[in-house]
Amino acid sequence: MPLEKRVCHTDAMSEGQLQNPAAKPSRDGILKRALAIIEYIAENGGSDAKAVSAGTEIPLPTTYRLLGELCAEELLVHLKNEQTYALGYRLHKFGVRLHADLGLSKEIRRELSELHQRLGMATYLAIHRGMDFVIAHVCDSPAAPRLAPMSFGFRENPHASAFGKLGLAALDESSRKQVLTESGMPALTDRTITDLDDLLSELKAIERDRIAWEHEEFQEGVSCVAVPFFSTSGVLLGSIAASAPTSAYEGMRTRIEHVLRSTASRVGRMYRLGPHFYRHVYQ
Q1: Residue 28, CA distances (Å) to 3, 11, 35, 237 in order
Q2: DSSP alpha helices (H): ranges in the chain?
Q3: 92: pLDDT confidence band, cut at 50, 70 and 90?
Q4: If 0-12 CB within 10 Å is exposed, 13-18 middle and 19+ buried, where does residue 46 land?
Q5: CA–CA gap between residue 103 and residue 274 (Å, rounded)
Q6: pTM here?
Q7: What is the rounded radius of gyration, in angstroms, for the C-alpha atoms of the chain?
Q8: Which of 44, 46, 65 is nearest to 55 (CA)?
Q9: 44: number of Cβ within 10 Å
């Protein structure tokens, strides 16, 4: 039997199946491994099978099989001349659809860019979906860098971020406690609020004032402020935020709050009137 066929035959069986041939393959395991391969290539660029296997700790035969299946589905492409694998074109379609779902029109991106230039701070758009939020767009520069690791898709530590606090404030108290219990309240800095009652008290003020601040709770030396925007029925759609070294807010808090609220008002209007899914999901 040719070598390639022998490799494929072995790869068709997981480690568990080699020990127990009657065992069925785990679909969860296959999916997680396939996603791990996509993520590895996304983070490291074009990679050969051995590099992918080493980086993901997936056995080489399994790596070869999954690479082949992912290429067949156009989630990856095999660059034969370079003997490497890269992200496939189908992922672009998914990305375009996600950006459309998140409502990232050029007008909204322009608003974030103008806010960044006006304040001289990193600016953010977060989209809130139920109990969750996700960073959808960031504008920054070498002079005003974003909070690490806040890039597209970031959604962690709601207790320590201005976005997360707004999202929590939009929930009832029972749901707030549920989210915080599930996510935990780790101390990211010595200023992070880790006491549940203290945070719940702050969330009530945020719900009332419709603005959330975090002072060096997420990252030392940097503070962030976020304001929400809502659907016509009052559901939280998203938030606009700015971050900068804490010293940049001295004597500027009122102006920064006013500019953020103005931007959030315009962005909220775009979302409410825009031809995307928020119209029929939330209104």
Answers
A1: 29, 17, 11, 32
A2: 3-11, 15-19, 27-44, 49-56, 60-72, 89-101, 106-119, 162-169, 173-183, 196-209, 253-273, 277-282
A3: low
A4: middle
A5: 8
A6: 0.63
A7: 23
A8: 44
A9: 11
